[in-house]
Design goal:
heterodimer, A: 218 residues, MetI-like fold, 8 helices, 84% helix, B: 231 residues, Rossmann fold, 6-stranded mixed sheet, 4-stranded antiparallel sheet, 39% helix
């Protein structure tokens, strides 16, 4: 028992906590990248704004990203993209780019759907009152659309944290890769994977807790 | 003297086989209440939407103070015509006060301190002094309508267009609305209303058009009164 506690405190927890910071970094930066992309693409692809050619390109991007596994996407970004562009990226950067691209495709659909679901009257009111198109989107449409989409968006962030585990395939020392390395060294899969699962649970639980509070506040 | 004049206004929606408006001629005189009456689908709302410049693909011309509405700049148009839609279309993420302040701040570039007092006075005059910090979903239908009127008047609109203003009001709110509209007339606001509410119409209008199937059938007060009595 004492052995197990010592193992947990001195051998398992420190590297896993360090790895969880990397998981969080990749998820947070990926989510920021994805949110900006998703917001822009969602607005540009919404019914009242869309320009056909841009809409087709965004649609194509969304279909490709949603139709392929993140596993393949990360391999493409890390191994194929540098060959095509002659720009090398670090594993963590490749991970952030992949998470961002993936999340922006999903979020763009969420934002687009949420904008389209708002009544036409909101656009017309803003038009009658003399708002410019930018003012209408910035001050009338997005505050309502994002509020309506908040549960889905935050759910997407929780998913991102969990999906960031695919970064292990390109050697990013995030939670799953680190736990697997510790298992290989310590041969205690039950304890180590339970702790790993618990850390994921704490992170996603915290996201759920704060988003519930945010939803109530809004 | 007429503030808004429509000449041969015709409109056909792209997804409809029948035209919504056919050669409609009308005048909205200064300081009077003009009523557009007719059954549902007769073209009343389409006409008001053309006047509010929400629909622009009509033929013919609608002029405001001798200038085509389509050619008015955004800020002039806002100061010329206010529109209160049937569903009010208030902004639900803002409070009552913010619904009235935000358009002035964004469109005219006023600071909040410049307009807050004037706006509060206007809200008070419409009996909304106790609701300024409330969100829209916390209001009754009658209160929402008064906020929509206040929002249009905050922009100093000379003409107020109201689409089916009594459709979601109880008799008490309808009576309040009538008093508000009469007080607006005293302030020089010209009002145009589309409605099929006979009782309300009878109590308020002084210039009336009867529309059917997109055409103006009559511009006769007597005719409308007879029509009302017959109904």
């Amino acid at each position: 028992m004492i052995d197990s506690i010592e193992l947990l405190i001195f051998t398992i927890l420190p590297p896993l906590l360090k790895a969880s910071i990397i998981t969080l970094q990749a998820s947070i930066f990926g989510a920021i990248f994805g949110s900006i992309g998703g917001l822009c693409f969602g607005v540009l692809n919404s019914d009242r704004i869309k320009i056909k050619i841009i809409s087709v390109l965004i649609g194509l991007y969304v279909i490709i990203v949603r139709g392929t596994p993140m596993f393949v996407q990360i391999l493409f970004v890390y191994f194929a993209l540098p060959e095509m562009t002659h720009v090398n990226v670090s594993p963590i950067m490749a991970g952030i780019i992949t998470i961002g691209l993936n999340s922006s495709a999903y979020l763009s659909e969420v934002v687009r759907g949420s904008i389209n679901s708002l009544p036409n009257g909101q656009w017309e009111s803003a038009e009658v009152l003399g708002y410019t198109r930018y003012q209408t989107i910035r001050h009338i449409i997005l505050p309502q659309a994002l509020k309506n989409a908040l549960p889905v968006i935050t759910n997407e962030f929780s998913t991102l944290v969990k999906e960031s585990s695919v970064l292990m395939i390109i050697g990013v020392p995030e939670l799953v890769k680190t736990s697997r390395d510790i298992v290989a060294r310590e041969l205690r899969p039950i304890q180590i994977y339970l702790v790993t699962a618990f850390i994921y649970f704490v992170i996603t639980g915290s996201i759920a807790f704060f988003t519930k509070r945010l939803e109530r506040k809004i | 003297m007429s503030l808004i004049i429509g000449r041969n206004v015709s409109l056909k929606y792209f997804n409809s086989a029948l035209p919504a408006l056919i050669d409609v001629n009308f005048k909205i005189p200064i300081g009077r209440i003009t009523l557009f009456m007719g059954k549902s689908g007769s073209g009343k709302t389409s006409l008001l939407r053309c006047i509010a410049n929400l629909v622009t693909n009509y033929t013919g011309d609608i002029v405001f103070n001798n200038c085509s509405i389509k050619k008015l700049s955004r800020s002039v148009r806002v100061r010329s015509i206010g529109f209160v839609a049937q569903q009010f279309n208030l902004f639900p993420h803002l409070t009552v006060l913010e619904n009235c302040l935000q358009p002035q701040q964004l469109v005219f570039g006023y600071s909040r301190s410049m307009i807050e007092e004037k706006t509060l006075l206007l809200l008070n005059s419409l009996g909304l002094e106790n609701f300024t910090d409330r969100r829209i979903h916390q209001l009754s239908g009658g209160q929402m309508q008064r906020v929509a009127i206040a929002r249009a008047l905050c922009m100093d609109a000379q003409a107020l267009l109201m689409d089916e203003p009594t459709s979601s009001l109880d008799p008490e709110s309808t009576a309040q609305l009538r008093d508000i509209l009469l007080s607006l007339l005293e302030k020089g606001v010209s009002i145009a209303i589309s409605s099929h509410d006979m009782l309300f119409a009878k109590s308020i209008f002084d210039h009336c058009y009867f529309i059917e199937s997109g055409r103006i059938l009559e511009e006769s007060t007597d005719h409308i009164r007879r029509y009302m009595q017959a109904s």
